[in-house]
Amino acid sequence: MSSSSRDQLLGYLLGALEPEEHEQIADALARDPALREEMRRLESCVGRLGLADKTEYLEPPPDLVARTCQLVASQRRPVLVLRPTREAAAASRRYTWADLTVAACALITAGAMLFPALAYSRGQAQIAGCQNNLRHVGFALQDFTERQPDNAFPTPELTGNRSAAGVYTVHLNEGGFVRSPKVFLCPGAQNVRPTPGYHPPTFAELDRAIGAALAALQRSMGGDFGANLGYTEGGELRRPCNLRRTSFAIVGDAPSDSQQGRRSSNHAGRGQNVLYEDGHVRLVIIIPSPEVLDDPLHNRDGYVAAGLDCNDSCLGRSHDRPMIVVP
User: Residue 234, SS3?
Assistant: First the structure.
């Protein structure tokens, strides 16, 4: 099925289509058993998608502004001004310093309540946009694995130009599994990339690149996300197979070596979005934690390298290699 058809089915499933397009998809489902089977598969994936727990937001007391103004007003002292009678009427229409102080306090108090709320809403919107992009990546990865004989995910090779974690974007983009490269970008990234200026390289471009050009491609091709580095078995590097596990990380916000524990710099420390093998996306706040049994940022030996077995997941930055290179 084409990517466009999958998007239409997903929009039909989520109730996001125009009425005319909705009826067209309904008619197509009634006629096509294969399309109905694809719809059941999408329903299964969407049913397992998780939503991040929202950060607790405490509302300020509703009477905070009123109480502040009352306190300031109580400190006012009458000012006696002796003026000629003709000036008395004009003076009564002038603002005093006390009036300006009360107005300034009210504005400052309102701003103190409004600006954090706006920043919180903007941060939550960026987290939600990032999760939406990761879900699209998840659908593309599920489609990719279904077309592999061993149901394996696209992970880096052991050596050569393709031995970098970000190569998964080349597989998905060149294979036509995504509609736009923007799904590999995070709205909450520290350095926001212009969408038209970003695109994964083709395999031909990647394979013929050398030196600094190759390093630049490997560093940028993964977008704003990190990807699974694979695992080792019997001394060989292997690709993880799609077993629909709920705690095996496949893609997530790109780790950062400048942050404690390699946490991502995306979302300004509010958390890290992670796409798991079964297709659900979760905002992880603390790593490690009782809810996160497998640290997605290191293998079980604590290194940024391929996992030690098929259940050990490690996400690498775009240019990270699956094996530790010893100088």
Answer: coil
Q: How far is CA 104 from the centre of its chain?
A: 39
Looking only at the bridges linking them, the beta strands covering 231-233 and 281-284 are unpaired
The position carrying tokens 């497998």 is 294
Residue 324 included in any domain: no
Answer yes or no: do 40 and 179 share one domain.
no
For residues 249 and 299, give the distance between their C-alpha atoms in angstroms, rounded to a whole number: 11
Q: Which amino acid is at 223?
A: G
Task: State the pTM of this model.
Answer: 0.64
> What is d(CA 289, CA 74) in angstroms, rounded to the nearest whole number?
51
Flag whether 279 is in a domain: yes
Same domain for 273 and 159 = yes
Place of tokens 């979302």: 267
Note down the domain range covering 12: 1-47
Coil, strand or helix at 39: helix
203-260 tens-digit pLDDT = 999 999 999 999 999 999 999 999 999 999 998 999 999 999 999 999 999 998 888 8
Q: Are 184 and 223 in contact (CB under 8 A)?
A: yes
